[in-house]
Fold this sequence. Notes:
Elements: E1 8-9, H1 10-16, E2 20-21, E3 26-27, E4 29-31, E5 41-44, E6 47-48, E7 51-52, H2 57-62, E8 67-70, E9 83-85, H3 89-102, E10 107-112, H4 117-129, E11 134-136, H5 146-152, E12 160-164, H6 173-180, E13 184-187, H7 201-209, E14 220-224, H8 230-239, E15 244-249, E16 256-263, E17 268-274, E18 277-283, H9 288-303, H10 308-316, E19 326-332, E20 335-342, H11 348-359, E21 369-374, H12 383-395, E22 401-405, H13 410-415, E23 421-425, H14 432-438, E24 444-448, H15 456-465
Parallel strand pairs: 4-5, 5-8, 8-9, 10-12, 10-13, 11-12, 13-14, 14-15, 15-16, 20-24, 21-22, 21-24, 22-23
Antiparallel strand pairs: 1-3, 2-9, 6-7, 16-17, 17-18, 19-20
Helix pairs in contact: 3-5, 4-9, 4-10, 7-8, 9-10
The chain binds adenosine-5'-diphosphate and magnesium ion.
Amino acid sequence: xxxxxxxxxxxxxxxxxxxxxxxxxxxxxxxxxxxxxxxxxxxxxxxxxxxxxxxxxxxxxxxxxxxxxxxxxxxxxxxxxxxxxxxxxxxxxxxxxxxxxxxxxxxxxxxxxxxxxxxxxxxxxxxxxxxxxxxxxxxxxxxxxxxxxxxxxxxxxxxxxxxxxxxxxxxxxxxxxxxxxxxxxxxxxxxxxxxxxxxxxxxxxxxxxxxxxxxxxxxxxxxxxxxxxxxxxxxxxxxxxxxxxxxxxxxxxxxxxxxxxxxxxxxxxxxxxxxxxxxxxxxxxxxxxxxxxxxxxxxxxxxxxxxxxxxxxxxxxxxxxxxxxxxxxxxxxxxxxxxxxxxxxxxxxxxxxxxxxxxxxxxxxxxxxxxxxxxxxxxxxxxxxxxxxxxxxxxxxxxxxxxxxxxxxxxxxxxxxxxxxxxxxxxxxxxxxxxxxxxxxxxxxxxxxxxxxxxxxxxxxxxxxxxxxxxxxxxxxx
Length: 478
Ligand SMILES: Nc1ncnc2c1ncn2[C@@H]1O[C@H](COP(=O)(O)OP(=O)(O)O)[C@@H](O)[C@H]1O
Ligand SMILES: [Mg+2]
């Protein structure tokens, strides 16, 4: 059998983070969570929100970890255990990530934005995987732990690396993008997310613009040209030394431009012009926002000299991620209804995108379009306005009925035209029965809210009640 080169051996890891290895070991993965650690991984003991990883070193080793990175020998761990002793495990994880980046010849892309980071990252993964060895961040691993961890996990042989970078506060993206050092950086959109932590949308745009400070010299900035902050972001990218700026969107000025899109329930058909090259393709995710994100993906593919046709084929085969548009067909008494699971998260931009998508949905028979909405979190002082403003959007849409859950959503309920008002409940659990009793064949139900609003509970319960899921499209979650 061909020998697989380890991701890290004891010498390389010790050298990368100026640490000291006891014993010789080889690791095939890196992990900061002993619950999900795989055999042969290097466990890094991080001091995080949910405690000190040093308390889980013994457990990780018992589960087959190749070694553990620590700043002291934790109680219950043998002195002769395979350990990588460092001064500060957080700094050492960053150093390990930086070393993985330094030894890599991969083309690197970083993705940030107020919405669509994970989806766009997964689109890039799919587009590149068709043409070379591709490594991408897992799930939404986009913060001070997730980014260095994702880098540290990047195999030497990687040809395309894709990293999601997120933030809750100004200044958080700068250190992350400086270790990722992307050849291309995407800002999907600027919108009110975590705005409770910011003075204004402009402040959010400035914080997202930090991503350009890590660009390799002459790197490519890929920016949403339909967004009012395009000029600001373009200026910041130029100041940071970007060699090229590619705008994407429907704007006639965009280099990666949407010419025409036809939106269907499960996909979109798109005619685009990507940096002078006409392209017709199908996007396997429904909704205008995914079409726009796909333009950013195609712009990156073009800018990095990868194959556009292979990328377009991959985009056609995409399936919605759990909680971000996955669809189910479920049984009720005398028929079938459609459930759209958008329960993963929500902010005003993604809420409008999802409402817009539902509004365009074709129903069957006497079916109605029903929105089931939970609170949008972290909107600060403006929270009430953002929730109230949804009433106008819903009144102008083709949505027939809106159920609401949570404290913030009360104001939306109160402001909806009476005939569009469904049940309001203090929490998501309280909506399940009234919703189930309202449903009839042909209905299309879209469920969305911030993670903390626990709208996933409604999805789970409806899936159980609607027993046989006819599964229009499902895919492993990421
Ligand atoms: N460009 C966009 N504008 C508005 N909403 C979007 C956009 N792209 C994706 N979304 C929506 O944002 C939500 C979160 O998507 P996700 O890819 O997980 O983003 P993030 O990683 O930034 O949180 C989903 O509901 C998705 O449909
Ligand atoms: Mg994400």
